[in-house]
Specification:
Helix content is about 65%, strand content about 0%. Helix 4 (about 70-85) packs antiparallel against helix 5. It has about 190 residues and is an all-alpha fold. It is built from ten helices and no strands. It starts with a helix and ends with a helix.
Length: about 190
């Protein structure tokens, strides 16, 4: 984790409002994204990347669920946090875009490196996508440091709730295509 007050405060926020399995998911998403930095072949802002990674699922929590898709609710909350904590507008906007696009299959990997890395990191953690791009030792160390804590069951419940209440959400077509089964089959 980058050693900045912004990162510490963002982690505190996520820990306050998110279940433990979601906190660890966000931390693993950051670690897996960093482990796949070779995929973007560009420098990235580690603080901005951490902020987007740690806050990318705020929209799944009751505190920040305002009725839009969880990605958009989370993006708004993350940007507000950044602005309230005096992060410059350009960086706050990038955090917003990271959160808003972390699930945009076919798009996220073509955007800023921070957006691509969050897409890769979260995808690796949720559905074992791109895990061949992570060294096995790194994968083991990250899973040991930030255990899953019944993540599969917790995430399936959160996503199912989103789709039930928001049938036009971005995740609806992915779930219709079997994404929940992909989560269940994740090998860790």
């Amino acid at each position: 984790m980058p050693d900045s007050q912004h990162c510490q405060k963002a982690l505190e926020l996520v820990m306050k409002y998110s279940p433990d399995h979601l906190v660890n998911h966000c931390l693993r998403s950051y670690a897996f994204g960093v482990a796949m930095a070779h995929k973007v072949k560009q420098p990235f802002d580690k603080e901005v990347f951490f902020l987007g990674a740690i806050m990318h699922d705020l929209g799944l929590t009751p505190k920040f669920d305002t009725g839009d898709t969880f990605e958009i609710d989370g993006a708004k909350a993350a940007r507000s946090f950044c602005i309230e904590h005096q992060l410059n507008t350009e960086k706050a906007d990038l955090v917003h875009e990271m959160v808003a696009h972390h699930n945009t299959v076919g798009v996220a990997h073509k955007l800023d490196p921070e957006i691509a890395l969050l897409h890769y990191g979260a995808g690796a953690d949720v559905a074992a996508l791109w895990i061949r791009d992570i060294h096995k030792k790194t994968l083991t160390e990250v899973l040991s440091e930030y255990p899953r804590l019944d993540f599969k069951e917790g995430m399936i419940k959160l996503l199912s709730d989103q789709i039930e209440r928001k049938p036009n959400s971005y995740m609806a077509p992915l779930i219709a295509l079997g994404f929940l089964k992909k989560i269940e089959k994740t090998p860790f």
